[in-house]
């Protein structure tokens, strides 16, 4: 199996899916001739031409709105927001049209589109280039919000997102774009949306995380288990909405303890929802209060200070210890 | 035109009697444009409208019972009695009440039609109020850049809700289209025949060239923005009442024909209302599902 980083894996998904389905259209700022600022759409313009790989004006509202119309009209647009922070200008289209068209038309029309957005910090950029605002999208009924964590699942989830009949926000952890390589099969691979993955089975503590936080957390968990002999169950959430509460709560019923690690700000981040779901479905199994590790409730600071604001291995470790010692 | 008028008058009556609630925006006085443009469209074309959409919907579908049912929140309404006055979706017809919000969506649909290559076009109805929304200009840029077969009809009724044009609009309508290289023209008319022949060549051109066009119809709404108070000058309204599209058309008919048309329309509207009333309220099934979930 070839080894790929996340950018190469996403690019593979595009090449194969566009080859297979001629209604798939890629659009966005600099995605065509240039190949995208992060190179995710590299080579697609030459392979599929300007009709299917469209450079657009700098107009997020127009890009998202046009993609919605194209989707209603029978195409499968995959639009890129160059950075997730730019998507706020397209917010009215996502909230008012993409998310509501199926419901508003009583199922007569759906919007099979994907909005890709690189998100997240740790790349020494600035506020709009480094945020984790998945809550905005997860809060809106009618859209799915997916966050891959590695090359292999990114490729398989992007294929699923393109094929999904409803709008999918595909939040790409840009910190993990080129951080490491994984074996990615050449043959088609599709993962079901809305399913979390238990990536390490354990019995004493459940740790839930997603996106680029997954790798940092995994390293802490592995080190912790080696040093203490504690058995940790690690869950990679993968889809934020609809949330796979069954996998999470089944795990918590087994372990009785849980820590959630999110890069997002604390207030009303996905961790809040996870804790509420544990209350609903596993409260009586809890041996300790559920802890969350998150960013502070501030605007993402500039590079010189961003590491002080993002969750650190030390914070994750402390939260695990406190939960286990409760 | 007359059936749209009588439909909307009945809607306002039902609101004032407390039989309808929520909100609604009538197109009373602006019916000529809707009828004149839509008469040139074919099956496969599509229409995107906004909050003031009853006239467009009825001219396209003649589905009076469906729209009554929708406003009454009944099964059998256009979208099952769940959308209301300004969220109508039917084959080739789409509205959303948020001003300007559907503009890029219409462009995307025109793109899909262009690629399908069957000669279908779209018509997007906007008002002068929506021209304040920035997304309109992002879309004009894209329409021109990608040469999309969309006819944008701006119905300038001189008011953005209650704010008159001179307080909310700078420059000129066609100047805005020209800035993006979009073909454009303007007409001030409430005469359905004049508008009908005016739009014949425009629709033909959009279909033939597969390129966008923006046409401005200067008109006036004779009723309030919604159902509430109307603060516009009485003499201004009176001036436009003399140019009521129904009055212009009625002057061309003899009394016998006028009475006959009135009688037929009354029957259509009455029968449609009764049919809508006969259906159950929407959502009975959903309620059962929600009960089960709780």
Description:
The complex is a heterodimer of chains A (326) and B (294). Chain A is an alpha/beta fold. Chain A has helices at 6-20, 44-48, 60-72, 91-98, 101-104, 134-138, 151-163, 213-228, 245-255, 270-282, 303-309, 313-325, and strands at 3-4, 24-28, 53-55, 76-80, 114-119, 144-146, 168-173, 182-183, 197-200, 205-209, 232-236, 239-241, 258-265, 291-295. In chain A, 38% of the residues lie in helices and 19% in strands. In chain A, helix 8 (213-228) links the parallel strand 10 (205-209) and strand 11 (232-236). Chain B is α/β, with parallel strands linked by helices. Chain B has a single domain, classed as 3-Layer(aba) Sandwich (Rossmann fold), CATH 3.40.50.970. Chain B has helices at 2-16, 31-38, 54-61, 64-72, 103-116, 135-145, 165-168, 173-179, 192-209, 234-241, 245-250, 255-277, 284-293; strands at 46-49, 89-90, 93-95, 122-127, 150-156, 159-160, 163-164, 183-188, 213-218. A 7-stranded mixed beta sheet of chain B has the order 2-3-1-4-5-9-8, sandwiched between helices. Classes of the chains: A alpha/beta (326), B alpha/beta (294). The A-B interface holds A 51, 56-57, 59, 61-75, 77, 92-93, 96-97, 101, 103-106, 108-109 and B 79-80, 82-83, 87, 89-91, 94, 96, 98, 101-113, 115-116, 134-135, 138-139, 141-142, 145.
């Amino acid at each position: 199996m070839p080894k790929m980083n996340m950018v190469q894996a996403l690019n593979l998904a595009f090449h194969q899916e566009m080859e297979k389905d001629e209604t798939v259209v890629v659009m966005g700022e600099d995605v065509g001739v240039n190949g995208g600022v992060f190179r995710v759409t590299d080579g697609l313009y030459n392979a599929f031409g300007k009709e299917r790989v469209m450079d657009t004006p700098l107009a997020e509202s127009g890009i998202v709105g046009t993609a919605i119309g194209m989707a209603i009209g029978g195409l499968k647009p995959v639009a890129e927001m160059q950075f997730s922070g730019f998507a706020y200008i397209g917010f009215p289209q996502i909230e008012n049209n993409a998310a509501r068209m199926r419901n508003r038309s009583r199922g007569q029309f759906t919007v099979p589109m994907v909005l890709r957005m690189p998100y997240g910090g740790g790349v020494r950029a600035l506020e709009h280039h480094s945020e984790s605002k998945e809550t905005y999208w997860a809060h809106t009924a009618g859209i799915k919000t997916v966050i891959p964590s590695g090359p292999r699942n990114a490729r398989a989830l992007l294929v699923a997102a393109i094929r999904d009949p409803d709008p999918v926000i595909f939040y790409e952890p840009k910190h993990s774009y080129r951080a490491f390589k994984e074996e990615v099969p050449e043959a088609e691979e599709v993962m079901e949306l809305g399913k979390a993955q238990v990536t390490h089975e354990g019995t004493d503590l459940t740790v839930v995380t997603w996106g680029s936080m997954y790798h940092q957390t995994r390293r802490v968990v592995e080190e912790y288990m080696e040093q203490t002999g504690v058995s940790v169950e690690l869950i990679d959430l993968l889809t934020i909405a609809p949330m796979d509460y069954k996998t999470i709560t089944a795990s918590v019923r087994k372990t009785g303890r849980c820590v959630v690690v999110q890069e997002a700000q604390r207030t009303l981040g996905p961790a809040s929802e996870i804790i509420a779901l544990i209350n609903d479905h596993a409260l009586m199994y809890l041996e300790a209060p559920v802890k969350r590790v998150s960013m502070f409730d501030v605007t993402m600071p500039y590079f010189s200070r961003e590491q002080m604001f993002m969750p650190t291995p030390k914070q994750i470790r402390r939260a695990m210890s406190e939960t286990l010692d409760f | 035109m007359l059936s749209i008028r009588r439909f909307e008058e009945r809607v306002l009556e039902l609101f004032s009697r407390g039989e309808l609630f929520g909100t609604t925006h009538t197109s009373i006085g602006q019916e000529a444009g809707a009828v004149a443009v839509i008469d040139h469209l074919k099956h496969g074309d599509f229409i995107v409208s906004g909050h003031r959409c009853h006239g467009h919907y009825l001219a396209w579908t003649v589905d009076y019972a469906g729209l009554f049912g929708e406003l009454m929140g009944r099964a059998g309404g256009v979208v099952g009695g769940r959308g209301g006055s300004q969220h109508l979706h039917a084959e080739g017809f789409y509205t959303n009440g948020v001003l300007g919000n559907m503009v890029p969506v219409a462009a995307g649909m025109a793109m899909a039609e262009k690629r399908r290559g069957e000669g279908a076009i779209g018509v997007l109805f906007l008002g002068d109020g929506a021209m304040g929304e920035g997304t309109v200009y992002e879309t004009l840029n894209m329409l021109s850049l990608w040469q999309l077969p969309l006819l944008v009809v701006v119905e300038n009724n001189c008011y953005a809700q209650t704010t008159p044009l001179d307080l909310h609009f700078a420059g000129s309508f066609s100047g805005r289209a020209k800035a993006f290289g979009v073909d454009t023209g303007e007409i001030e008319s409430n005469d359905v025949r004049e508008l009908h022949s005016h739009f014949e060549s425009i629709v033909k051109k959009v279909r033939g060239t597969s390129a966008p066009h923006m046409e401005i119809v200067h008109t006036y709404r004779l009723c309030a923005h919604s159902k509430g108070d109307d603060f516009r000058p009485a003499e201004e309204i009176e001036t436009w009442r003399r140019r009521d599209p129904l009055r212009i058309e009625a002057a061309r008919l003899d009394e016998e024909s006028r009475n006959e048309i009135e009688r037929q329309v009354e029957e259509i509207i009455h029968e449609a209302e009764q049919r809508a009333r006969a259906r159950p309220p929407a959502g009975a099934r959903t309620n059962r599902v929600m009960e089960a979930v709780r």
